[in-house]
Structures are given as structure tokens and as C-alpha cells.
Design goal:
alpha/beta, TIM Barrel, 226 residues, 31% helix, single chain
Length: 226
């Protein structure tokens, strides 16, 4: 299945606390080709957490972007794990997989671009080690012509998805499993786009996505790709 990529969703979310270094290490041990994480900008730092509020995944409360960096770092994100920074994630991955950075909040594109540039220039990473995606096409558009691989993210792709992708110079389109079908995947490939499907957790579902031509899946259980 080397041509069909396993992307660990928030690390290995089904097995360890999501978006933590523990979860990412688990995905790597299980052989994930890539890891997907979510970032918000807080005081010029990119912190790795999915929700805009803290209650579901930590012992804190309130909006992520309204907190101090110090407060966020004091919280338990599960099993004693801290909310990591994107820099800590990259150091943990250490090029053993590619990193899909999903931009979740405002002012994330510029910070992500700067950090990617640093790791390419000074840490032997390559542009192909990164993929940046977002539902927020305005934020994603800030990275147009940056040389960074971009992924347009949709629950259900609009009719003009290919035009949007072309405008952004996107590498891939990421769609919900409920919207994935062979006709769409064939059309996306005709437009030169990779198709990655989220979130696919059953073995039968993973097989089906492979069989209809998807280029990979986001899964909470990277072990099930075996």
C-alpha cells in the first residue's frame, strides 16, 4: 500500500490523546506516512490543538486564542501531556513522516510559512515534507505561490472545487469520507490533484477508499492500515 498513504489524524487519535506528542509518536511507531495536526496562533506561537475552546481536550477552559501561552502550556492535554507547539511536533517527527498542518485560526499562515522555511533552510527538511491545509481558504490563500504544498479542505467539495484549487496552486483536495466517490476522485485526478479522505477508521472503509482510487486517508487508527 506504499502508493496509498496513511495519515495519522491528530497523531493516532484513537489510541492516544489527540494532537499531543504522545499521539504523534504512536502514529510514527505504527508506520504512518504522514501526521496531521491542527494549529492556532497564540502570542506569535503556533500551538497544536483542534478546538477553538479548551474544554473537550484539556483540563482548561475558555477560547484558545484568548489565553496566554503560559496558561496553555500549564494544562493537561491528556495522560499528563502538554499542548505542544508546532516546533515541538516537527522536532518529534524529525522527517520520519510528512506533516500536514491544518490552519485553524487567524494569523496562522504566516507563522507556519516562517517555521517551514526555517526547517527547510536549517534542519534538512524538504518542501515535500510539509502539506498545509485549511477550511479557511482566505488564510490558505496567503500561502499562494509560497512553494509550500497546499491542500483545500472541504466537508463536501463545491462544484468549483477544481477552480479554487487551481487558483491556489493546490497540491491536493481533502474531503470527508461521506463525500468520497470514484467519480469525484477520477475528476480530481484529471485536474492533477491528489485526494485524501477523512476520517476513515474501519478496515473496510480504508480498503474501499483505496479501491476507488483515493491517494490516502486520514485515520485515527494508523495500525489498521496494515
Amino acid at each position: 500500500m506504499s502508493d496509498f498513504l496513511c495519515i495519522g489524524h491528530r497523531g493516532a487519535r484513537g489510541l492516544e490523546p489527540e494532537n499531543t506528542l504522545r499521539s504523534i509518536r504512536k502514529a510514527l511507531v505504527l508506520g504512518a506516512d504522514g501526521v496531521e495536526i491542527d494549529v492556532y496562533a497564540v502570542k506569535n506561537q503556533l500551538v497544536v490543538i483542534h478546538d477553538e475552546t479548551l474544554e473537550r481536550t484539556t483540563n482548561g477552559s475558555g477560547r484558545v486564542e484568548a489565553q496566554s501561552f503560559e496558561y496553555l502550556r500549564s494544562l493537561d492535554a491528556g495522560k499528563g501531556e502538554k499542548i505542544p507547539t508546532l516546533r515541538e511536533v516537527l522536532d518529534t517527527v524529525d522527517r520520519r513522516a510528512f506533516v500536514n498542518i491544518e490552519l485553524k485560526g487567524r494569523q496562522t499562515a504566516g507563522l507556519a510559512s516562517g517555521l517551514i522555511g526555517e526547517y527547510v533552510a536549517a534542519h534538512a527538511w524538504k518542501d515535500a515534507d510539509f502539506l498545509v491545509s485549511s477550511f479557511d481558504l482566505d488564510e490558505l490563500g496567503k500561502l499562494k505561490n509560497s512553494g509550500i504544498r497546499l491542500g483545500t479542505l472541504f466537508t463536501e467539495p463545491p462544484e468549483n472545487y477544481a477552480g479554487i484549487a487551481k487558483y491556489l496552486g493546490a497540491y491536493s483536495v481533502h474531503i470527508a469520507v461521506e463525500s468520497a466517490n470514484e467519480d469525484f476522485i477520477t475528476d480530481a485526478h484529471r485536474h492533477g490533484l491528489k485526494v485524501f479522505v477523512y476520517t476513515v477508521n474501519s478496515i473496510d472503509g480504508i480498503r474501499r477508499m483505496r479501491d476507488i482510487g483515493a491517494d490516502g486517508v486520514f485515520t485515527d487508527y494508523p495500525d489498521r492500515m496494515a
